[in-house]
Amino acid sequence: MCAVEIPSTPHWLVDVARSAELAGADDLSVRSDASIGAAWAAACDALGIPPEDLARHVARHFRMTVADLDEADPHAIKLLQGSVAHRLGVLPLEYSDRTLVLATSDHVTLSAETEIREASARTPEFRVVPPEALRAAIDLAYRGADDDRPAPATAGTLRRHILVVDDDPDQRLLLRRVLESVGFVVSEAMNGRQALDMISGPERIHLVTLDLAMPEMNGVEVLQEIRRRRTATTLPIIVATAYDSPEIEMEIFEAGADDFVVKPLDPARFLLRVQAVLRRHQSRPAIAL
User: What's the predicted TM-score (pTM) here?
Assistant: First the structure.
């Protein structure tokens, strides 16, 4: 929703009801310190409308749309940790290379919007949904997720090792320079077979950037083989592709990728994406950019 701080009084739901000229709005009183669930319940009871109707009025007031939780893309939740989603009361619904659409029931503060942007390396956009339905959807989406992993170590305590896999030497050189400029250790592989050998080698690799279009063994095939190996099932992987389409994105995520970037790569956005993926793998601390 709007990236503004929650007003102290009156509760913003009161403003919504009065702006929509709903029956009983003038007498509506909701404590400004009420939880969002309690505020919605109080407003619905006083106005005599179901939560779904109130959601439509909220969406109209803020010039937004109502979230359809049934059409949420299951791959979108990979872009935000469950602990963050539960704490902020948001659920990822859909995504692109630049944006992440989330459902919310409340005003999203500037600090929360910044946290989502840093965690996903995407610009957040918001849709409205009643809080009870949202809580149930968040619980279902992140059921069984491991959100109790160790917190990140202090920046600089350990240098991260990135494997860049691409058949184009110019692209490998570009990514090497970008990654090394902020302190990452970088290795290169010119094809999938070489990448698999290096991943199985003695040096620990903390993240892989993987080109999608490679001869002999393409990026999806390499990704699938990595995920079949027990020692690499949780290795963070970012796929680089020149094909910006929902079908390709779904194939990438279904094969086990943590994220994707669209070529030609923007160095700053690429670094943000690497940082965000490492941050989501909190047991593998990232270097501060």
Answer: 0.81
